[in-house]
Amino acid sequence: MNHHQAVRRHLHMLEQQLRDCGQWQAEPPHASAFESSQPFFLDTLQPYEWLQWVLIPRMHALLDGPHALPENFAVAPYYEQALAPGHTGRESVLAVLVELDALFSGDKS
User: Fold this and answer.
1) In whole angstroms, what is the distance from residue 55 CA to residue 2 CA?
2) Of 4, 53, 96, 99, which is most buried with the most CB atoms under 10 A?
3) At CA 90, angle to CA 41 and CA 34, rounded to 5?
4) pLDDT digits (tens, 9 = 90+) for 56-72
5) CATH topology assigned to domain 1-103
6) Residue 55: how many CB atoms within 10 A of its CB?
7) Domain limits of the chain?
8) Residue 54 near residue 41 (C-beta atoms within 8 A)
9) Which PANTHER family match (predicted)?
């Protein structure tokens, strides 16, 4: 499995974890929620919303087009802080995020 395939697989795993823990939303947030200048849209989206409506679609767009993937990508540390222990789906979502982050560290050749 090449790097792009592994990233896409983890994005699908992340989506499935969000669905499994009941955090996948059928309707997107209001358009103004995407106008944030804060990291992870802290002021306009909940943590799981950012994964669903920002990270997953943007990463798929990078994979679908002739775009370079980010380097030294890491979102798991934020989610370790943003999601309190016991938060719905925290451990399963964090596990996928840690694996996703690992795909962006070190040598990928």
Assistant:
1) 20
2) 96
3) 15
4) 999 999 999 988 898 88
5) de novo design (two linked rop proteins) (1.20.1440)
6) 17
7) 1-103
8) yes
9) CYTOPLASMIC PROTEIN (PTHR39586:SF1), CYTOPLASMIC PROTEIN-RELATED (PTHR39586)
